[in-house]
């Protein structure tokens, strides 16, 4: 279960799921109610971020994904605001939220991370 949580925290959903399955096999063999409860909690945590295209601990909202796609298309904040009919400050807030969720501090890093995670 520890391995599952570590893989989950590192953004490796496939490895996290594999570790959960190994823990399930062990839990079935030894039948311990405390282990069963801990396993259920770990399964819930891992499953919540194992959605296709959203391997993040805190998934992106639809609007954040829209903004991210336009960032990857090379649009400026003002161009994004115009295209999505948003205020410039709203776009800036979405961009900052994206940076936090992706663990980056610059636009280029956000593009690289989004492609690495197959979000765009």
TrEMBL record:
Residues 53-118 form the HTH luxR-type domain. It comes from the Bacteria. It holds the Pfam family GerE. PROSITE patterns: HTH_LUXR_1 (PS00622), HTH_LUXR_2 (PS50043). The keyword Transcription applies. CDD domains: LuxR_C_like (cd06170). Keywords: DNA-binding, Transcription, Transcription regulation. This is Response regulator transcription factor. The lineage of its organism: Bacteria, Bacillati, Chloroflexota, Chloroflexia, Chloroflexales.
